[in-house]
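Look over this record before class:
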Amino acid sequence: MKLLAIETATDACSVALQPGEALVERCSSEPRVHAALVLEMVHECLRESALELSDLDVLVFGCGPGSFTGVRIATAVTQGLAFGSDLLVVPVSTLAGHAVACWRQTGATRIAVAVDARMDECYWGLFSVDSEGVARSLDQEKLTAPGVIPVPEGKGWTGAGSGWREFPLLSEAMEGTVDRIEPAVLPLARDLLATGSRQFAECGGVPAHEALPVYLRESVAWQGGR
């Protein structure tokens, strides 16, 4: 299966193309320039793989939650590519991408993701990641104040995402449950591929007009270019 993934919901902007077993990717950590970079990244990955958009089986994108502007960029670019090439789309949670990135870097398989959402809130999700890098959500993703997040059941969790750095009370509340914290983890497009492929196999994709962003918030914090 040939998949192209796009992730722009954090400070990392990335595109990954998986034509079979190979992986071609482009990444940038420059914040607030994703819109100027992402399409060229797509074209570079296609050229390097000697493929056209029409050769792909499905498009995958990080649908959020995350930076409001970043989520909109990934959604709009993916919709445009899908419309133009008549491809189906698989939206993958950006929080799931955080979990897979943490698994890829540390080997952790039970991951509590907390991402700073500004306004003294965080995006929160619990995930398991299997040996193929597929993330499964263990609870409903939510936007919440850190002080009211319930402690996950069991021990041996790894915390991932900027919320663990921004809200120290999370670590205090979950001492003994969360053994390790990786606050600098950011998802790349490659971290969406296995989960997107599994979702496509199990549920299929959606047409471009149904490839929608997930914000979890009606009002948006525009601080810091978000």
About this structure: Residues 219-226 have pLDDT under 50 and may be disordered. The chain has two domains: 2-93+187-225, 94-182. Residues 108 and 158 are 7 Å apart (CA to CA).
